[in-house]
Amino acid sequence: VSPSFSPKVSVIVPALNEEKNIPKVITEILRGFERIGVNGEIVVINDGSTDGTGRVVREFMNQHSLIRMIEHTTSHGVGASYWEGVK
Prior knowledge:
With 87 residues, this protein is of the alpha/beta class. The chain has three helices and three strands.
């Protein structure tokens, strides 16, 4: 593998009422991308959160173009959220 090779990776993060935890999760993923030189994206599935999870993710999205969010109005469960992120 050549040193210029940079794989494309999608990290899927299902989240339900994770306002307090999601900043650390996103920050650590971004640090990991940078540390190992991965060209990747973060796909947060906001699974019907009733706290500020969506707001916090949108704040990160305004600062980092590689963060995406899919929002559910009601919870679909972690499995369904994961597979929607894969899709």
